[in-house]
Amino acid sequence: MGRTVVQLTLIGLQLALTSTLLNKDDWDVYSFHINSTVTSRYATTVITSRVANRMDESKEIEFHVRIPKNAFISKFQMFIDGQVYDGVVKAKEQAQQQYTEAVSRGESAGLVSSVGRTLEEFKTSVTVAAHKKVTFELTYEELMKRTHGKYELQIHARPMQPVRDFKVDVYIHEEAGINFIDVKGGLSTKALANAITKTHVNKQAWVYFYPTVDQQTMCDNCGEQGMNGDLVIVYDVNRNNGLGDIKKFAGFFVHHFAPSNLPRISKNVVFVIDKSGSMQGRKIEQTRIALIHILNDLAEDDHFGLITFDGNIFPWKLELVQSNSKNVESAKNFARNIQAGGYTDINQALLQGANMLNTHDREGSASILILLTDGQPTKGVTNLGKIQSNVREAVAGKFPVYCLGFGFDVDFEFLKKMSLQNNGVARRIYVDSDADLQLKGFYEEVATPLLTDVTMIYVGGTNLTQTNFSQYYNGSEIVVAGQITDNDTETFTPQVVAISSNRRLVFSDPNGIVESGGSVSDDLIQRVWAYLTVKQLLDKELQLSGPEKEQVKKEALSLSLKYSFVTPLTSMVVTKPLGETIHVLHKPKESEAPQRGKPPGRQSISRHRGTSTRHRSDNVATTAAERAFEHWFSSLDPETFLDIFIHHYSPHGNPLQPNYAPLLHRFLLKAENQTVPLCFDVSGALSLKLLHHPSRELFVNGELDSVANGGFKRIFMHFKTNQHFEIDTKGVTVRDGQTETHHTGQDLVTAGR
């Protein structure tokens, strides 16, 4: 059968499928409520969506919401025609069979996916009978982290259409007293100002957001599909600058420690900057800008060093120097002239940075090592475990190592493990227009050390979370939770011991400031302990191996199941009415690249390159160009380009002819305001996602033929869960549920019902 017939058949199938696609006008979200309660910095948020099927036939109703990445989903329910369908949290292995079956059917079985920098998207759907209703209810929990002297509660509102009964209610209760409260985010605009009500009285605060139907189309990212944006509640609590704020209830306690009336400690900081080939272009430009800002912010009694590296190591100075105006200006000139190119020797760069700090041990100061890289080691020691071992030995617990991973080509687990092994943290820097501000923002978090060698002591306490911290920074907070032995509050005695410059400080309260639960719900303090314990066990498990690793994993899994937390070790099985597909919810890993936010229900061409197994080669110029193109490509709106053409060529640019050079697929992309199309090359076997309509569950994938033959070998189309089409040069195969039929190019194929 000729290619023309295949092409016409494919177009016919697409038109037939399009006529059967889901229309959201068929159903009405008549109520959408978000209710968030915050006590002792622990937020429990419930999203409730009520939807009616207005049609005379059954319709599939969708539920899409976005939640903070730091949160754990703890409950999901659907209420349909008097019946309640609960999500059940299981060990991931137990849910794996259902997950595998869903994937084999071409479904998107992982219902939670990363979206942007701070959010994850939860998605499910259910069939609702004519003129019937469904209520979706999702609960998630998170312990808010204090940075830059404040807490931020992020609430994302996206009901997918204007809603008559739309409400966001936030209640905050802090026994220490609320110092200030503010409302920010994309939904806090002049056009929506009168929809927001904020009240603050001593220990309590209320925020209400009740926009009208008309107002729900007036924010920057809003339109005919209603609200799509964030409401960010920003607040901080009063502080006594002593032992801190301790809550206890039912045998559990949580301790928030954040003194601020302390003198800053001068610091020794070494910046280790990757300048390999993949950093070329925008990344290195933004790194230069951020470095210059950071150097300007150094205090005069700070000492600093600067190392750049590719396959070789380039220290600005061989030792740390004081940050006086002369040295800072010299370092800024060095930063302005950083050029990208070459391989990546992370091991040697970090060892030299650690050595600089070890040989500059100033009494009464705090040392910090900061690594910025966008890739994986390609020169010197490239074994990740060996690099981690070398760095751990060189640092020897004397100072924290902070790893900043630029983009998604880094092995983030490698960076995270190395940071955790050295009392630091790893942070993703997103390749975006504000990457320099992200770098500067991270530095500001660690710019002002107030205490070192912090030890949290609890006489009469057991099952404690982390109690030793290498450094405490201004604007942050240390949180410890645990159990009170035999619930004996009389003998329970908390104390904090730390170093401030060269002075030993002891924080205690002889009068005993431990407060009873008051308005705290029965199990809230216990859930704070469980949440924090699971988070820290997951970090610990990453650092271990063998039987120890399995034991820690077992403990984390047990707690996740007991408190119904959806974590990397558990899955939630979303039950549905009899006969419908069961969805399995997995929490995505930090290493997974986020989806770029798109308005729901909109078609888009896949922006991801085909998966390749070849290793990065930083000294190859085309690699940097590919990466620059990737970033530009991912930032495009689908409507900014017209067509993708497939050309075939040899690496030498000659017309195709028999030779031994590898043949590559070349893709040319026409875009607005571009006179010459952009191109990128892909080698080897490749399947491309040609079209994905998420809300309507339509996938179109193509398997490229060999370069010599050209074009596609096969086209696959998947519609919902039970309609699958495979088109090749021999004909069309249609699978509708359990029925499979084969058609030639002369057959008429009808899709849909």
Give descriptors for this structure.
about 750 residues; Immunoglobulin-like; 4 domains; 10-stranded mixed β-sheet; 7-stranded mixed β-sheet; secreted; protease inhibitor
Nutshell version of this structure?
The chain is α+β, with helices and mostly antiparallel strands. 21% of the residues lie in helices and 37% in strands.
Written description of the protein model:
- The chain is an alpha+beta fold.
- It has four domains: 3-20 and 603-638 and 683-743, no CATH class; 27-238 and 563-586, Immunoglobulin-like, CATH 2.60.40; 245-262 and 451-561, no CATH class; 269-347 and 364-437, Rossmann fold.
- Helix content is 21%, strand content 37%.
- It has eleven helices and 40 strands.
- The chain has a ten-stranded mixed beta sheet with strand order 12-13-10-1-2-8-4-5-30-31.
- The chain is globular, with a radius of gyration of 28 Å.
- The two termini are 28 Å apart.
- Mean pLDDT is 82; it is low at 1-12, 15-22 and 596-663.
- Residues 13-142 form the VIT domain.
- This is Inter-alpha-trypsin inhibitor heavy chain H3-like.
- Keywords: Glycoprotein, Protease inhibitor, Secreted, Serine protease inhibitor, Signal.
What spatial form do the alpha-carbon principal axes imply? Answer: globular
Provide the helix percentage.
10-25%
Specify the oligomeric state.
Answer: single chain
Residue fraction in strands: 35-45%
Give me the CATH fold name of the largest domain: Immunoglobulin-like
Distance between the termini: 28 Å
Q: What's the CATH class label of the largest domain? A: Mainly Beta
Strand order of the largest sheet: 12-13-10-1-2-8-4-5-30-31
Number of folding domains? 4
Signal peptide: 1-20
Main location: secreted
GO molecular function, one term: serine-type endopeptidase inhibitor activity
Protein name: Inter-alpha-trypsin inhibitor heavy chain H3-like
